Amino acid sequence: MKSAAAAPGTAAEQRKETGKPAPGRKSGVTMSDLLYKGALLLILLIAVSAVVPQWIAPYSPTEMNPDSLLQPPGAAHLFGTDYFGRDVFSLVVHGSRDSLLIGIGSVLLGGLIGGLIGSLSGYIGGAVDALLMRLIDVLMTVPGLLLSLAVAAALGPSLFNIVLAVSIAAVPRYARVVRSQVLSIKSRPFIAASRSIGAGGWHIFVRHVLPHTWTPLLVMATIGVGSSILSGAALSFLGLGVLKEVPDWGTLLSQGRGYLTVAWWITTFPGLAITGLVLAVNLAGDRLRDILDPKLSGGTGAKGS
Prior knowledge:
- This protein is mainly α and 305 residues long.
- It is 69% helix and 0% strand.
- The protein is built from 12 helices and no strands.
- Helix 3 runs antiparallel to helix 4.
- The radius of gyration is 26 Å and the shape is elongated.
C-alpha cells in the first residue's frame, strides 16, 4: 500500500525530470502559434515603420540619385532603386504610414457608424429597424470596391476622403453583425431581470446591450483592417489616392507598373508589403476570434451573462 501511494508522486517526478507532459496535455509549439507570433512581429515592424520611418529607412524617400537609376536589389539598395534613383526600401518604409492610416481609420469610422446603426436598429425595432435595414440593403447591392471608387471620385483625392470612402463601403457589414448580436442579447434573461427592477430602456441599452456587442465587433474590425488596406491600395492604384511626395503602397504599385519588364522590384516589394500586412492582420484576427469566441476556444465565457 505504501509503494502504491508513492507511485503517483514518482511518476510526476519522472515526468518533471524527463520533460514529458502530463497525460492529456499538448506539448511543444504548433505551426499555428508560430504563424501567429510571426504575424504579430510583422505588424509590430510595420507599425514602427509607420511611426518612426527615419529609424529604419537608410535614405530619404525624396532623395533622387541620377547615377543610380533602376538599380536592382543589392547591398547598397536592399530593394533596388526606381526611375528617379530613389531607394525603393525607403519608399516602402515611409509609405507604410498612409497605408496603415487608411486601414485603421476606415475600420474605426466604418465600425463606429455601422455599429451605431446596427445597435439602434436591433434594439428599437419596428419602423426604425425596417427603415435602417432597407438603407443598408441598398448599400449592400453595390460592390464595396465600386462604392468606394464612386465616393472617392466624387470627393477628390485626399487621405480623409479615401478613409471615408472605404469606411462607407464597410458600414453594411458592421451594421448587420451588430444588429444580429443585439437581437440575440435582447432575449436573454438578464435583460428581462433589469426591466423587472425598473431599469429604463436607454440604461439597459448603454449598460447591458452595448458592452455585449464589442466582442464580435472587435474581431470583425481586426480582420477588416486587411480588406480596408487592400481597398485603399486599389483606390491609390487607380489614381484616387493621396497626392504627396511620399506615395503610399498603392501609388507605388501604380507608378512602377510601366517598368515591370525592366525593373520588376519597383512593384514587387510594395506588393509584397501589402500582401504580408493583410495576411498578418487576418492571422491575428483569426487568433483573436478563437480567444474571444467561447464556442471556438472551448471556454466557458458565455455562462457569465
